[in-house]
Amino acid sequence: MRLNILILCMSVFVASCIPEEKVVVQGMAPIYGDPDDFSKISFLPTQPSVNRGNILIYKNYILINERLKGIHVYDNTDPTSPVNVGFINIPGNSILTIDKDILFADNTLHLIVIDISDIKQPSYLTHISNHFKSSLIEELFPPNYSGDFECAKGGKGIVLGWEEKTLENPKCFTNN
């Protein structure tokens, strides 16, 4: 009996010493950004819409969130024919609301306060640090994607998007 236990323990020890087989696959990897860099908040030309989120009405505009990127701005002066006029770039953004001429938005981690009284010249005012749970950074996964991906790690920054990449031993998988 002791010999069987000894053999079992030895086999478990030897099996745990065998290196993991290296698996290389094509998958998605997060693109990270600095959550404290507010210099990228700006008005840009129209951008492609891939992963839309919340919709708000502000004055004669329709604002549509683009997950992790910012906000599409449509002139809705003629509601029968809204015109895409540009994009408010807010890296990491997915949540927004407006009070008067002030836009409150996230960049995944912080609550950012932006003056949009001139919608085409958004002006960063301030932010509330670490307002949102940092665990949200780690829960993100590539939208509309099925397959292996590199797990997002909060210590590397905020996730601004995803790129196709060769991955070694990916630990995350999604089946969207």
What does this structure look like?
Helix content is 12%, strand content 44%. The protein is built from 2 helices and 13 strands, in the order H-E-E-E-E-E-E-E-E-E-E-H-E-E-E. The protein has helices spanning 2-17, 135-139; strands at 24-33, 42-44, 52-58, 61-66, 70-75, 83-89, 96-99, 102-106, 111-115, 123-128, 146-149, 158-168, 172-175. The strands form 4 sheets. Strands 2-6-5-4-3 form a 5-stranded antiparallel beta sheet, with no helix packed on it. It has a 4-stranded antiparallel beta sheet with strand order 7-8-9-10, with no helix packed on it. The N and C termini lie far apart (50 Å). 25% of the residues are buried. The mean pLDDT is 86.
Q: Major sheet, described briefly? A: 5 strands, antiparallel
Order of helices and strands: HEEEEEEEEEEHEEE
CATH classification class:
Mainly Beta
Which fold name is given in CATH as the topology? Answer: Lipocalin
Low-confidence stretches are: none
The number of domains is: 1
Q: Would you count the extended β strands for me?
A: 13
Query: Count of helical segments?
Result: 2
Structural class: mainly beta
Instruction: Provide the helix percentage.
Output: 10-25%
Principal-axis shape: elongated
Outline the fold blueprint.
Layout: H1 2-17, E1 24-33, E2 42-44, E3 52-58, E4 61-66, E5 70-75, E6 83-89, E7 96-99, E8 102-106, E9 111-115, E10 123-128, H2 135-139, E11 146-149, E12 158-168, E13 172-175
Antiparallel strand pairs: 1-12, 2-6, 3-4, 4-5, 5-6, 7-8, 8-9, 9-10, 11-13
